[in-house]
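Exercise 7.
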Amino acid sequence: MTTMNDSMMPIQGANVLTADRERLGSVKEIVGDCFKIDAPMAPDYWLASDTIATINGENIMLRFRREEINDLKMGMPDSHTGVHRHAA
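Solution. The predicted structure, written as tokens, is:
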């Protein structure tokens, strides 16, 4: 298991799990310091890379629980970073 740091980014296809082990989907795309979740049966959305707690092989564990996801979803990323909401 690897703890997230500034030099690590998710890989395409990796499973994305919340802190309470709920699967959100998989990494579809990476742009800058953000990554897009391919959410099954729901619209895709972006998250900032600093929402990642750990990466363990093909699994990415996030820092937040499932019920907090709506506060962290973002639109298309631009050049800034952090846990933040992007303009759609």
